[in-house]
Amino acid sequence: MKLFSSVLMIATAAALSGCIPVKHHDLTAPQISGTVTRAGVPVQGMHVQLADVLDDSGAPTPDALKDEAVTDEQGHFTVGPLYRVTKKKASIPLVSVDLHTVPWGLRLSADDSKWRAGWLSDPTVLGDVPKAPVSAMCDLSVDSKSSAVDGAPAVMGNGPCILQLIEKKKK
Fold it and tell me: pTM of this prediction?
């Protein structure tokens, strides 16, 4: 019994010190709810895809996690959040991001085959992910532009969607 107690104590100490990889659920892309319009008119049937890692062309990498929704008759959608289950020590990064990857982004497609950027995070920001839900207003008649997620200025991106944090109502 003493041997079992000793082994249990050593294993617990090792796990707490970071020597043994422990499963983590790490947020890699926020929940995004929004509306897709074209010059103010809701667009029904638009495919909206959230991916947690994209290449520099805006396509999901082979190992990217994705969530997809199709807009309803009012143009509304909700995708995400995305979490990666990882076994890691605290000092090991979650996803390798370099100048040729985009940490997370939103893509739009009318036919589920030809995709365009909805909002792609700036790769130089190195993967900041808002913890709060995000709302998106996507206007397909607008060219891509650079913008910050309102309420999270460290999160920059490009696309026809304007993103902002959804504030939780205080009780």
Answer: 0.76
